[in-house]
């Protein structure tokens, strides 16, 4: 069915993925929940890592490889996941995302050793790859243009909420029933979420990916956002991985205080993703934000380096990383929704996500090698350089401020 570009069609969403249905609060909560579950297996391993190391005899090196395995698999699978979402529809893919998350968590709960653990985390890369393409297509189909930016920010905050759940409720549950019982409880919750998704998501249209739109190449700005996300992911992943260790080893913080640094970063990231995405929904603002937020992240990384001489600055830096760097990823998704050609939101979302996941796989090993050789000061300067390069990549977006389908 032909519709005027930028208008809401009557029988299908503007991306042709699902039958049109008005987006409500329950659908927004479901999308946020799906994003939280999409990366929960990695957060669970991080939060329960000491228990895994103690019981299974897994080395710290192998535990670190789980991040590379998970994000590496997600980066490699993202292009295929995007095409799959465009072809079969976001409803089927979101249900599959939640069921695969349940399977990955159940496998982690039953893991006997290193090989199965890495296999389980790699399986968890599939939900990661599906998450942004599927949720973005639901937003295009079910929400009017003036609400999409706000809903995108809310659902992107689900990733940070997943980190909170792994770090507090599941950790407390593990203290009572054991880490395997806690992980199995999370797996059961993911399966229940899949049933909920099957109940409330609008039906997929069989012709979702049919037609000439599938041959339309991704916009140049989408490729720019993918490179931007690669550099941004390198820096964010380095901070996420080493911030608590930095606080404990170099700043003399207690383990509880060092862990609180990560919690502060996460809470700031939730607020930043919701707030900046709302700003991005205003006319002419979205294109300017990636460069500006990445520039703010440069300042955050420099504050981390300065904390070596003034310890309290590390808390300001944690808030700044969440408010600027973590938030920039949500704004990228707002831009993808605006610029994607009809029928291409899944593939374009996957392209940008692949860049972000690749950064998460590559950034921490580079940072760790540099810190081992030279110390944390040069390491944080490397993160600042990555954020500065991301900002430079995004400057043409700010200068052109070109409109997408919603413009």
Automatic annotation (TrEMBL):
Region (Disordered): 1-20
Predominant subcellular localization, coarse grouping: membrane
Topology of the protein relative to the lipid bilayer: Multi-pass membrane protein
Domain of life of the native organism: Bacteria
Annotated keywords: Cell membrane, Membrane, Transmembrane, Transmembrane helix
Location relative to the cell: Cell membrane
Molecular function GO terms recorded: transmembrane transporter activity
PANTHER family named among the record's database cross-references: CHLORAMPHENICOL EFFLUX PUMP RV0191, PURINE EFFLUX PUMP PBUE
Protein name, as recorded: Major facilitator superfamily (MFS) profile domain-containing protein
Lineage: Bacteria, Bacillati, Actinomycetota, Actinomycetes, Kitasatosporales
């Amino acid at each position: 069915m032909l519709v005027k570009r930028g208008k809401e069609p009557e029988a299908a969403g503007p991306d042709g993925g699902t039958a049109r249905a008005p987006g409500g609060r329950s659908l927004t909560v479901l999308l946020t929940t799906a994003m939280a579950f999409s990366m929960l297996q990695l957060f669970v391993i991080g939060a329960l890592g000491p228990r895994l190391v103690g019981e299974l005899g897994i080395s710290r090196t192998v535990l670190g490889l789980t991040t590379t395995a998970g994000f590496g698999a997600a980066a490699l699978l993202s292009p295929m996941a995007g095409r799959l979402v465009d072809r079969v529809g976001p409803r089927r893919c979101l249900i599959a995302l939640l069921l695969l998350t349940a399977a990955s968590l159940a496998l982690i709960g039953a893991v006997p050793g290193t090989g199965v653990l890495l296999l389980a985390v790699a399986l968890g890369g599939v939900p990661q790859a599906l998450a942004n393409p599927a949720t973005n297509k639901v937003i295009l189909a079910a929400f009017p243009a003036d609400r999409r930016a706000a809903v995108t920010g809310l659902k992107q905050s689900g990733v940070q909420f997943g980190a909170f759940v792994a770090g507090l409720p599941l950790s407390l549950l593990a203290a009572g029933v054991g880490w395997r019982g806690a992980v199995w409880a999370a797996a059961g919750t993911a399966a229940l979420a899949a049933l909920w998704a099957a109940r409330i998501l609008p039906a997929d249209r069989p012709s979702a990916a049919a037609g000439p739109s599938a041959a339309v190449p991704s916009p140049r700005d989408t490729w720019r956002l993918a490179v931007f996300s690669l550099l941004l992911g390198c820096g964010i992943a380095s901070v996420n991985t080493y911030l608590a260790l930095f606080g404990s080893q170099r700043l003399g913080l207690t383990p509880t205080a060092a862990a609180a640094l990560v919690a502060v970063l996460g809470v700031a990231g939730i607020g930043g993703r919701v707030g900046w995405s709302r700003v991005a929904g205003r006319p002419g603002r979205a294109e300017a934000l990636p460069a500006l937020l990445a520039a703010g992240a440069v300042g955050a990384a420099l504050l981390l380096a300065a904390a070596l001489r003034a310890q309290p600055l590390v808390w300001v830096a944690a808030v700044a990383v969440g408010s600027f760097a973590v938030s920039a990823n949500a704004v990228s998704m707002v831009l993808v929704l605006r610029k994607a050609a009809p029928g291409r939101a899944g593939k374009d979302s996957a392209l940008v996500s692949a860049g972000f996941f690749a950064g998460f796989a590559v950034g921490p090993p580079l940072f760790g090698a540099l810190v081992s050789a030279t110390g944390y000061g040069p390491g944080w300067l490397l993160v600042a350089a990555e954020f500065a390069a991301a900002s430079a990549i995004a400057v043409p977006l700010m200068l052109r401020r070109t409109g997408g389908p919603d413009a």
